[in-house]
Amino acid sequence: MDVVVTIRQTGILRGNPILTADEKSVDITKLKRHINEWDQYALEEALRIKERKEAGITVVSVGDKKTEDAIYYCLAAGVNEGILIETEPSKYLDSWQIASLLARVVSERPYDLVFSGVQSEDEGCAEVGAILARMLDIPLSSTVIGIKSLIEGGTIEIQNELEEGFYHIRTLELPALITIQTGINQPRYVSSLRLRNTKKKRKITKVSPESLGINMMELDCKKMPKRLFIPEFGSAKLELIDGASSNEKANSLLGRLYDRGVL
Amino acid sequence: MCEAENAKSEKIAKALADVLPEKFISINRYERIANALHPFPFDIEKEQVPYAVVMPQSAEEVSGIMKYANKEKIPIFVRGSGTQLAGSSRPHTHGIVLNVRNLNKFDIFEDYGFLECGPGCVVAKVDDAVAKLGYFFPFHPGSRIIANMGGVVSNNTSAHIVDASVGKPNDYVMGLEVVLPNGDILETGTKGMRRPAGTDLTKFFAGGDGLLGVITKIRIRLAPSFKRARGFAMFKDLKALARGVQRVYLEKRPLPLMMEFMEKEAAKIGFDIKGLPEPKGSAIFFVSVGSSEEEASAKLNQVLDSFKAENPDAAYEVTDLDEWQNLWGAREVIGSFLMQTTGYQWKAAEVVCNLKDLVVGIETAKNFNVGVPIIGDLKLYLYGHIGALSMHPGILIPSDWDNEMQKKANNEIFKREAELNLKFGSCGGEWGQFSMRKDFFVRRYGEVGYTLIKDIKKAVDPDNILNPGILEGYR
Amino acid sequence: MEEEYIEEIKQEIIEATSKCRICMSCYADCPLQESTRGYVTQGPTGITKAIYYGILWDTLAGKDAEELRDIVYACTTCGACVARCEKSACGIKVVDVIEAGRKLLVEKMIGPLPDQIKVLESLDQEGNPYDELADKRTKWLESIDKEDAKQVKVLQDSDTVENLLFVGCTSSYDRDLVNIPGSIVKAFNKLKIDYGILNDEKCCGDPALRLGEVGLFEDFSEQNTERFKNVKAKRVINICPHGYHTFKNNYADFPSDLEVMHYTEFLAQQIDVGTLTIKTKLNQKVTYHDPCYLGKRNNSYEAPRKILNNIAGDNFVEMKRNRADSLCCGGGGGRMFVEVEEVDRLSETRVRHALEAGAEIIVTACPWCHIQLSDGIKTSGNENKIIVKDMAHLLADCI
Q: How close B90 comes to chain C (CA, Å)?
């Protein structure tokens, strides 16, 4: 069984991040980085399939040179092969561009399943998985919270999470792409020593867009952000509602909600 | 491990959730392993890992567990802290371990003159509580900081206390609450100060080696505490030391509460650590008791008179408490010192002599491992509760010996111990009569004796559900 | 076949545990015994042998491994077992074995406990276990007395000072504990001590080490050692006993001419030489809870008592379990960051001990003990009977 996991390395957003000069994205070169949270769950889910049955896992990512760290992390965690599609640092790429690059790599190898995280922490578009599935012309299910069964050469049965604790169970024919929701599992921890060892012993495959037959000048960005900015913190006021009794406080609160037209 | 085992564990946990709270049932693999451990140095076998560990809080819960076990034919192995030295704490086969530590409440009823405690009480906790109130009870195993009351009562273990002076622990046990192998709950004994004449069912379980029932409550008489006097003697000649002890008995001296000895080589180590001057011979130190300090001292001096008749290098009352702490401490540190400096493991046997043959006995104990296979060349140190005519030849066993060698060494120690105890017509007074001692029991009491106990066991526990393996002998 | 370095950890553990006679003496002193969790785990022997059998029978995968993880991470690393084994048995450094077991589990990607993973990530990214920003570490200075804050030297690289006050992560970031460093700074200012704090202080690395993330710990050890070498202080004074212990015992290249003291030891010394006199006495009953990493693990019992005796005199009452026999609050060994399921919380049991001793105030000298005990007071419903204070609080008011 061959599983491909697409991951994104994101900057760890803390405090007030610094923006790129063109104000279109957060300047990732100034931040510490990690694997996008959703993709961590996707990676773990793939590793668990490998533990249960014979499977080869390949991780693919689009990113700059520092994204190698993320791929080494995946290798340390137990993945068989890691591929980096290396692009310019700080160049904004939208979901279409990313999916196009990924599709080139994924379509050139045998695969039964493709995992991606539902969305990324820094963009939050939740599009790459869907676009990639369309480009590969394979069935898709998003926001998967569980895999109930997996039959090689056959089908995958997945759970989608609904409200109120309900699930929807669906079956897809393989090969298929599913986007993984957080909470599906508990991602393992890869230690500093393990990572160090892996960097010494393993190799990453690096490819350029050109080697994939893609001219980045011609690969259009379909959805360019207008402008990114850090909002000013307003003068929001905090009022503690007082009163002699719970009833009085409740009435006071009700009054205010009516006044503001909330009720 | 295997799927079948996991499935069985889950089935048992589910069923027993009707008997006791789920938080007191564990099927965590490693907690199950932990409850199969005991003081033998070789590895447990996979077949000895229990399916589940349960910690009942009452006789009713124990009863429910026994009923379930009988219905499903699953063995029950009862354990406290697992410190028994003849192997009784290690489960013989797969089964359920019943850990008694939740049965750990105790109450002191001064107006009744007794205390009641659960089997899972730590001995030192109960001992310290009664001592604070001015009472005494002869429950004093070397492992008292962690050993449980249930084990002391099941084994009737004397350790430091000289039987002939104040009796054995179970002489103070007035009654028990027991759960029989079929789940029936039984109360035995009395609440009165006069113990039963004739059949006292207590005796089937107190000192019962865990064969016939699970003890869930113990009633113990509160004896008044006493004043102590302490004495010390040193003998160049070990045989003279033995003769001195014989005299104490033969000359009808008031027997001390405790009387310990250290053979010269052992004494050298202990004394050196405690900053005492190098001993010229073997040391003997003891505690005499009385209702006043004068009485204790007078009794002590009678004992000293017996020693003095054998030309000791020294024989005197120890009045300096610091000196006494050092002497007592010297005996306690020997084992740990040797283990820490050599990296070896310390294993002692329990050789018990009769009064007449004590001189031969002590010499024999000193040469315990001479000519014995496997352990013959190992270093030996001799010390023990000489006041009870009991000796612990202790051997240092290399830690890097593999499981097979460790087992063989263990077997040889118990075998030699059996030979000596047979020779002296005695038997162990600290570690129970079966498990590793089952061969001794059969040789000592013959097939007649062994068949008798087997028949009793079969009558009370027909499906051999409770602690199987102890009676059959260590595997 | 495992990596070589993982096989080495396994060997190390097997060798250390092979000396164990399973006498169970360590179980007698293990704080887990105070909760029923300990009964079933059978104390330190149970934990170390669990690791041993996991290695021996190669059951370190899947659900089995998680079960082992849950036991191994229940230990608070208080060190009571180490003292007991040295006293009564073969002298195995039990906590080291348990930490090696944790290292094995981490390297095999089984450990630590899920809630502890973000602690390690936070340490790696921001140099503290609380997910707080590294550049906000000295912000606590803004919350204390302005006059006191002004006198605190914030040391840049290569600044020199006699006493380097190592504030520690908890005292720096915990909003409720800001008056611990505040009180120490007040006391130091009053005594005109020459001291400073680092401008770029990072965690001592203790949580990483206790959780088994040895590689991450080594990063902290190296970085901090380097920083100390640049500052050239005579002495490091720790607020937190975990930092104190880690500098004293776990840093491979700690400068040999740099003294490490806990602030109570330093202030007790000031009492000895007469520079510190207590002016006002406390007339409430106080007791002292010995932090394990100051007491049991480093035998430092008397310095805090000297201070407290001076402050409280006859109003200082000892708990029945004190000094080497003190009961762990349950916060060490990574347990600060998770809720370990147990019947009878250690912190509540310890609060009960304090109440039994007749105390109205429990004084301690460790920020984690402080948090644990303060939680224990709340969860046991004793808020109107007893409070927790750090030694520094009491001291600052009395000099």
A: 12
